[in-house]
Amino acid sequence: xxxxxxxxxxxxxxxxxxxxxxxxxxxxxxxxxxxxxxxxxxxxxxxxxxxxxxxxxxxxxxxxxxxxxxxxxxxxxxxxxxxxxxxxxxxxxxxxxxxxxxxxxxxxxxxxxxxxxxxxxxxxxxxxxxxxxxxxxxxxxxxxxxxxxxxxxxxxxxxxxxxxxxxxxxxxxxxxxxxxxxxxxxxxxxxxxxxxxxxxx
Length: 201
Ligand SMILES: [Zn+2]
Prior knowledge:
The protein is α+β, with helices and mostly antiparallel strands. The protein has six helices and six strands. The protein folds into three domains: 6-46, Arc Repressor Mutant, subunit A (Orthogonal Bundle), CATH 1.10.10.10; 63-125, 2-Layer Sandwich (Alpha-Beta Plaits); 140-201, CATH 2.30.170. The mean pLDDT is 83. Bound molecules: zinc ion (ZN).
């Protein structure tokens, strides 16, 4: 434990309020000599009481930004780049984008939306984001669960028996459904036959 006397504490409080006060100014305010102040400061620094002389930032500049994720549709994607508030642009298809906007308030967000003139499909405030140090580098292609071809545009998402399937086009989805239905029908028939056989025995 470092022992601090009244003079040390007064010195600390003065510096906490304004770390740029000179030794002369401190000496004057404390009513002690400059060598005394100098010696005290050296001791406080040596003992690690004063670790750094820092600055206080204008609270306006310290304010954290709100980051909002938006799924948008736009015919003029080049406009997105004009706004410094738009910190991330991810393209889905030619017109659909996922963007991240950093703004101070709703008004700032409104300005970006109106200024860039895009249509908002979905809007989600980001509460927390975790940056992975090594993001995956290999892009895994989306493949159609029916034909196996790579899905270029937006995949059609279909949930079937608690499993999610992706399809490249409505035709593949329709064919998938038909095949599944046929499988189920034949399974059902098998069941019926078995049930029948049981009856006969
Ligand atoms: Zn397909």
